[in-house]
Specification:
Blueprint (H helix, E strand, L loop, with lengths): L1 H12 L3 H5 L7 H13 L4 H13 L1 H24 L2
Helix pairs in contact: 3-4, 3-5, 4-5
Length: 85
């Protein structure tokens, strides 16, 4: 119901939700992976962060991928600080 309302609003505004916000309403795991990796390089918008968070609530694979990224970031930071000593 809410998706229909959002799509109707987007049509009224002259385009799809993706065109207006840059974020698909129902992204697949490949899209979530891309968005998560993009979040490593730059700050994502609130809409993108919300979509990722909602997807990760139901998808264990994407949730594990996010946790692995955090672990890799922490490990790289620790390695850099240890190598400077």
């Amino acid at each position: 119901m809410e998706a229909r309302r959002d799509q109707a609003l987007a049509r009224k505004l002259g385009g799809s939700i993706k065109e207006k916000t840059g974020v698909k309403l129902m992204p697949n795991c490949k899209d979530i992976t891309r968005m998560t990796l993009a979040g490593e390089d730059r700050r994502l918008g609130a809409g993108a962060r919300l979509v990722i968070r909602a997807h990760r609530l139901f998808c264990t694979g994407c949730n594990n991928f996010g946790k692995q990224l955090v672990l890799m970031r922490q490990t790289a930071t620790q390695w850099r600080s240890d190598s400077q000593k």
